[in-house]
Specification:
The complex is a heterodimer of chains A (about 575) and B (about 250). Chain A has about 575 residues and is mainly α. Chain A contains 21 helices and no strands. About 0% of the residues of chain A have low confidence. With about 250 residues, chain B is of the alpha/beta class. A 6-stranded mixed sheet of chain B has the order 6-7-8-3-9-10, with helices on both faces. A 4-stranded antiparallel sheet of chain B has the order 2-1-4-5. In chain B, helix 3 packs across helix 4 and helix 3 packs parallel to helix 5. Classes of the chains: A mainly alpha (about 575), B alpha/beta (about 250).
Chain lengths: ~575, ~250
């Protein structure tokens, strides 16, 4: 279907800037909004951002300085590195644009208004393409800035270098945005938009999981060994060959590197800009032909039918002695989780991360020379810290959003005779039991691989159990203290300010527990090694302190959360 | 029975509900009218226990909501104006879940859920996810959920929004039969025709204060001009009438 435009006299189609103006106004108004701890959040964001930039810049600057010191190969290595970075960013951009375009072109709330208004198809395409580009590219720009600055400073790019870099980056961002939007347009014309979102989330998660898994299984650290190269000539010729000559990532890298090598090449810029123009025009034509049909299809309702699982029936039977209210709350939590593709699909990534973690432990060089008795017993503590981080990030993803996701339905829970204490404890157990099972499997499996002593195994199992309860309590508590009730996308909740605070609190908790336990355990293990008596008081003190901290971190946040929920007016 | 004594709600310096006293006895369908932003929804959400009053008290079926909220809420059914429910539950699962919140389950709940869904033509949709429901179907499901646990008091905010004429008629009949059996309904609406034909008594609220309360004839007498509820409403609230619209269109 094509769009026709025959406007009444005196009425013109609104301009591109007018169509985009609500976005500008909203962006302008956001920092002025009445949000809690606004300045605190801003300072934290700037601080973390600055640390990140300085870290990336510092790391790359040192590396590039080292490369500059190597004649012949240095510049080739720097170019190869930039090419590899650009090709990774290009892949991420394509995926991110496909997902973002689905929201901005088909599911956004302002579309009813824009589609019903006499907005010309080209302006709508332009506005939404710009919106998609901005939404999916800001993080890439954030990452690329310190990288390109490091290149510019190391290779003395000159005053014009920022312009050259911007000239390469802008079309590099536009190309995947136009391609991603076009892919989404085609997908929506095949599947309804809501199903497309489900399909895309699974594809995205599988792709990410696949990349992580392949990267790990390849074990890139082996490639760094010098015996891996048969001859220098072979190595140089490999470096000279472009990674992917037909990809915009290669053109962007070439544009920048040829400028830095004082041998500017116009062809790469020409290819970048002409391709960007071509894909935008092609995207606009596709939009003209397919958007009206696709938008209409995207308004179709979501999934209708649902399978009644035997797991649900089994859980219902198991929970019957706990009372109707608790049973129904738990069942509701389970159903909402497993029926939401965006939620359960994260389990795939989680499984891969756990496999990679266990895989890494398996290949730790813990045998042979230099591995002392003490080192072998210190490693389980490092393992506990890492497992604690894994659990904290899982809790941030699955337990922390629990309260925020109740936002729109809180009227029902608040007007019913349900105690907030019951609601929070139901959420606590629903989240904690799988988390604890995972924690125990993780620690048990890695401790077996590490061949730790029976005593260390007991310490690990006890500590991880206490830490799991504490982390779950913290996640629920911070979830109630920093809720995001109005979010459209559940995946954004863990990355909110509250999620960040939760991660920081978890790090502090893990650190405290390990510090308290490590010393008495070290003394005890040492005493046994020396075949002397250990100090039981230090042991009691350490483990008692850790237990108290974990219990406090479990109960106090939930208590605060209950109070907060009681006071909440929604 | 619903009893409000000196009920007040303030948001900072803004008083949304100002010292309201009201009593709705058993067996009465009470209408709550007022212009946009008058304080209707705030009052109803306080009665439902969602908002905390700044001052005053609320008694539901004789139980103080502040001192024994769970007992008071167990006698209440609430129908909000915006039908937000769990998208990933089926209609039947949602009704079962709501009954569970009130500690009810088993065959009686199943039977009642089926009957309520059939009443609102939702029986074929019972096993389908709420995300596939239209606005009106969600509203019907929420109305059904308010009746699932047989409450003594129902508080309902704009019940007719999104309902088709048949469902609106069914709801009116359901409400009338429900109060005939001795229960209490307090309902806010902008549909004056509904209030006029359905409600035993009506209160008109403006700027958080009750402007008038009574039967239609009481209100007519108070407005000293006679006419229908629309005329009474406009006179009591001092809203500018349709003649202003002509001026606007000519502008």
């Amino acid at each position: 279907m094509r769009w026709k435009c025959s406007m009444p006299s005196g009425m013109g189609s609104p301009g591109l800037l007018h169509v985009l103006s609500p976005k500008f106004l909203a962006t302008k108004a956001r920092p002025l909004g009445k949000t809690d701890n606004r300045s605190g959040r801003l300072i934290l964001f700037v601080l973390i951002g600055a640390i990140f930039w300085i870290f990336v810049f510092g790391l790359l600057y040192r590396l590039l300085k080292y490369f500059r010191g190597i004649p012949e190969i240095g510049a080739l290595l720097a170019a190869k590195l930039l090419g590899l970075m650009f090709i990774s960013l290009f892949g991420i951009l394509i995926l991110s644009n496909v997902v973002t375009a689905l929201s901005s072109f088909f599911l956004a709330k302002d579309l009813d208004l824009l589609v019903a208004a006499p907005v010309d198809w080209l302006r709508l395409y332009g506005a939404k393409l710009l919106e998609t580009t901005a939404h999916s590219s800001w993080m890439v720009v954030l990452v690329a800035t310190p990288v390109l600055t490091a290149y510019g400073i190391s290779y003395e790019g000159g005053i014009l270098y920022p312009l050259v870099a911007a000239g390469a980056i802008i079309p590099f961002l536009i190309i995947p945005a136009a391609i991603g939007s076009a892919v989404t347009l085609l997908l929506v014309n095949i599947f309804p938009a809501r199903r497309t979102r489900d399909i895309l989330s699974v594809i995205a998660i599988l792709a990410a999981a696949g990349i992580v898994l392949i990267f790990r299984l390849v074990r890139p650290e082996r490639l760094a060994r010098p015996e891996g190269f048969r001859s220098l000539v072979e190595f140089i010729s490999l470096l000279r060959t472009p990674t992917s000559p037909w990809m915009p990532s290669e053109w962007a890298a070439q544009s920048i590197m040829t400028w830095l090598r004082r041998d500017p090449e116009i062809l790469s810029f020409y290819l970048l800009w002409s391709t960007a123009a071509f894909v935008v025009v092609l995207g606009a034509l596709l939009h003209r032909w397919l958007y009206a049909r696709g938008f209409s299809k995207s308004q179709e309702s979501g999934e209708r039918w649902v399978r009644q699982g035997s797991l649900g029936r089994m859980v219902a039977r198991l929970l019957t002695p706990w009372g109707v209210m608790r049973r129904e709350l738990v069942l509701k939590e389970m159903r909402l989780f497993f029926r939401d593709t965006t939620q359960w699909s994260q389990l795939i990534l989680l499984t891969v991360l756990v496999v990679v973690y266990v895989f890494n432990i398996k290949f730790l060089p813990l045998r042979g020379e230099g591995v002392t008795f003490f080192l072998a017993n210190v490693i389980p503590f490092v393992n506990l810290i890492l497992a604690g981080f894994v659990l904290a990030s899982i809790a941030a993803r699955f337990i922390f959003p629990g309260i925020s996701l109740e936002g729109r339905t809180l009227w029902l829970l608040r007007s019913s005779p349900l105690e907030m204490r019951q609601l929070l404890w139901s959420k606590f157990w629903v989240g904690t039991i799988p988390l604890l099972a995972l924690a125990l499997i993780l620690v048990f499996a890695t401790d077996i691989l590490l061949q730790v002593s029976g005593f260390m195994m007991m310490v690990s199992i006890f500590t991880i159990t206490m830490m799991t309860f504490a982390i779950a309590g913290l996640a629920l508590g911070f979830g109630a203290l920093f809720p995001k009730f109005n979010t459209e996308n559940a995946a954004q909740i863990p990355t909110s300010f509250g999620g960040l605070v939760l991660m920081m609190a978890s790090v502090v908790l893990i650190g405290l527990v390990i510090v308290l336990e490590a010393r008495p355990v070290y003394q005890y293990v040492g005493a046994r090694y020396m075949k002397v008596e250990g100090d039981p008081i230090a042991m009691w003190f350490g483990f008692g302190g850790a237990t108290l901290i974990c219990l406090a971190a479990t109960f106090v946040p939930i208590r605060i959360a209950v109070q907060r929920m009681k006071e909440l007016e929604r | 029975m619903i009893e409000l004594k000196s009920l007040t709600k303030k948001y900072g310096s803004f008083t949304a509900v100002d010292n309201i006293d009201l009593s709705v006895p058993d067996g009465e369908l009470f209408g709550f009218l007022g212009p946009n932003g008058a304080g209707k929804t705030t009052t109803l959400r306080m009665i439902a226990g969602i908002l905390q009053p700044t001052a005053g008290s609320i008694h539901l079926a004789g139980i103080d909501l502040a001192t024994d909220p769970l007992a008071a809420k167990s006698r209440l059914g609430f129908i909000p104006d915006r039908p937000f429910i769990y998208e990933k539950l089926t209609g039947a699962e949602f009704l079962r879940f709501v009954a569970g919140l009130y500690g009810q389950d088993g065959d009686k709940v199943e039977h009642r859920a089926r009957e309520l869904m059939a009443l609102f033509d939702l029986e074929e949709w019972g096993d389908e996810l709420v995300e596939s429901y239209s606005h009106g179907m969600r509203q019907k499901l929420i109305i059904s959920s308010a009746f699932i646990h047989r409450p003594q008091v129902i508080v309902v905010d704009e019940p007719m929004v999104g309902l088709d004429p048949k469902a609106a008629r069914i709801l009116k009949d359901l409400f009338r039969e429900y109060v005939r059996r001795g229960h209490t309904i307090m309902m806010s609406t902008h549909t004056l025709e509904v209030a006029e034909t359905l409600c035993d008594r009506i209160a008109i609220i403006q700027h958080g204060k009750i402007r008038a309360v009574g039967t239609i004839s009481d209100l007519r007498a108070e407005s000293t001009g006679g006419g229908g509820l629309e005329e009474i409403f406009l006179k009591l609230t001092g809203e500018r009438a349709a003649r202003d619209a002509m001026e606007v269109l000519d502008a």
